[in-house]
Amino acid sequence: MATRSPIDQIAFRYRPADSTTGVTRHTAKRLAEHLGVDETQVIHLALHEMAVKLLPQYEADDAALTAAQMRQIKKRAPQGKKQSVRSSLFEVAPA
What is the model's pTM? Predict the structure, then answer.
């Protein structure tokens, strides 16, 4: 295994009791056993789940929709009796 620099590591301390802000080592071991991984992987899985839930998964795009994008939206929108898309919700950039 490759050696890691101190910059790549953090100190991690388990809590004395399970709470909304942390878990005991006993709980981490139970999770690891249940998932079939080690305790370190449990921590990585938990952090990954939080990252997916809380952090944007793509770069924000504040640009106006192009005419081609509006055509795609209109084409994929469910077709009912009215068969229209309220394009006033989006600014359309000139093609």
Answer: 0.55
